[in-house]
Amino acid sequence: MKMEVHPDTTEPGIAAKWQRLMDKARTSLARRSLEVSLQHSTAALHMCETHHQLKDRKYLVLGNIGWISRLNGKYPQAIATLEEALALADALPGPPTRERIQIWGELGIIYHLSDRFDDAQRIFSEQYEVAKGTGLYGATCRAIGNLGKANYQRALGLWNTNSNKDPTVTQQVRDLLDLAIEQLKERVQRSRSIFDYEDRFSGHGATTRARKAAAWETGGYSRLSLCSTLLASVDPENREAHLEQAEKYATSAVRDTGIILNSSRTLALFFLGRVFYLRGKKDLAMQYFNPHISGDWYWSPSRCTPAITFSKEHSSEHRGYLRELVEIGADLDAVDEQGYNALDYTVFNSDEESQGIIIGGLRKNGASEALTQERLSTARLRKEYREIFQEKLRPLLQPGGNDTVKKIRRVYAETIASDPQKAGMFDKLKYIRYTDFEQFGRLPRSSDGLVREFELGENGEDKNGVDCLIFFSYRWINADRSLNTPDDAEHTQYQRMVSAAEGYMRENEEVDREKLCIWMDFACVDQDDPSKGVSALPIIVTQCNATISLIDDQYYQRAWCCVEAMMIMALRYSRKDIHNWYEQVPLASTEFYSGGEAKQWTLKDGNHQYIQMEDKELTFESDRPNVMFLSRQSNLLRPV
């Protein structure tokens, strides 16, 4: 849905820029690229808060962010955001807008996922009547489908509590199912009408509205299959007939999923597989529960399995499906296009019950206790990364202001000080004064006593007066790890760092030598207990004024070097005034250092290039999942 562009009265181009951000946010959201959508939505929200002529559009952005929070399983945060959006929308003159009605529906969906079925049914009923009364065909279609889904869930809840099979309760269940089926059939009919209308304009491919209509139709058929499977339990005498009807509905749901880019496709696959399983066709069912393994042509380019889908948005219904997947032995190790697996999502949305189901499934599938705990620790680390990158640092990288690096240092220090969970995973910002480094004569180790910690003062700056901070990105050139140093016998890397720092000060004459500090891993990461320091390494890059990469013929072959380079490339993408990046290269550009005699070096601006992480070298292969994760996160630091 494209937002209406209002007349711009103050700053030319602001409204158009805001519109582009929202279009990108909506497109990414439709494709379930939630992190990218949040990136653009945050930028659009910043514009609403800094440009007076955009203040009336803030509710539109909040509606988007609330939707993203819901899809990430963060329901309390989503409810608060959507309620704020509704309050802002209601304060505007005129009848309810299409977007206001959609936000209303989003709130109803969260109530549904939170098992507040009566509240969800009430909101969906009101949404349906308002949308229908204002002639909003798409909103009406979505509302009636949500209403049918809520009534199915109410029927299921009644049936699950009807252990004595009370005839009165059974009749109530059937009445609710009849109502749900009627509403879901209306959803299918309305969806098909929209699709057929839009199909006339498809030309070289389905329009966005046609894709939405196809997703709504698929969702309607999927829920109809659920109604029929429940009827198979309520009416056991006609069980096979009901399951046959469920299979027809589920097959119709899958039929048109080729143009759908969101989770509706994955859900359709699951519901069809579920019907096959209930009819005793286990091998066939497994092809739909594990489409990434079966290679089925329905396999979505989003690479989101049913287990991942039900882990993203937690509810009692979805936990039930997860238990079914665990019981049948579905694969729980698959990752989606964002690099996350089912366990990652249950940890990210703090749903401990779903987390327990997934962990139990991993053990059932043969994972050892040690491996299970390692996966859980990795998932928790990724959650903290996402929160620091996206919620803490990302908002600070918006245009405006020359003290961004100092703000990032302050916010990071405050976060570590106030959040024990993050403090247990990430190291504080540490550094070495350049004058101490220069006098030391070699690369210092963390135990050599040169390292200081960033201490937050009353003015938000370091108590010890650190001003300019250089991050050195380099590879270990000493292949003999028993020598316990990354440098060779000639102290080549140390000499290169001194040369680079001197060159940096020549190019930046305002830098005070006495306040210049450096960060390098051998000193600033505790070599006897490196986990917290290694985890914090990419975050440290954002807190440094400059990154200097010591380039040689193997630098861009090393995975950790590439992660650091990708991080600074993203930061430099459009805010060159915040973070500097230099590559130190041989004075003769064709000559590369390869571990032999000393060379003369010079600094040049960093060379932006495409880095393919999959083939990069690691000393410890177990680091690869985290390296791949961080390479994806680095892209989210790009200003938009």
TrEMBL record:
Pfam families in alphabetical order: TPR_12
Family annotation (SUPFAM superfamilies): TPR-like
Membrane-spanning segments: none
Family matches, as InterPro entries: TPR-like_helical_dom_sf, TPR_rpt
Gene3D superfamilies named in the record: Tetratricopeptide repeat domain
Protein name: Heterokaryon incompatibility domain-containing protein
Organism: Immersiella caudata
